[in-house]
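Sample log: DUF2922 domain-containing protein.
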Amino acid sequence: MPKKETKLLMTFSGTAGKKFSIAVPDPKEDLTEAQIKESMEFIISKNIFAPSFGEDLQSALEAKVVQTRTTDYDLIVS
């Protein structure tokens, strides 16, 4: 049976010009654009991920919900 994964992918630009993405698994289905913008602005204002990325986040670039469907096969190789 296929496995379905959904994640919210938020992309930011850093102060040195690099792009950084943060993936949030299983976002709420009724998540609004306003809620996403507010969350991204909060992440930037609190500088939450700067130590991980090595530079400060400067601005929100984009956000999208990504769905992946994976089908595993039990192959017998002789």
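Observation: The chain has one domain: 3-70.
Observation: Residues 33-46 form the longest helix (14 residues).
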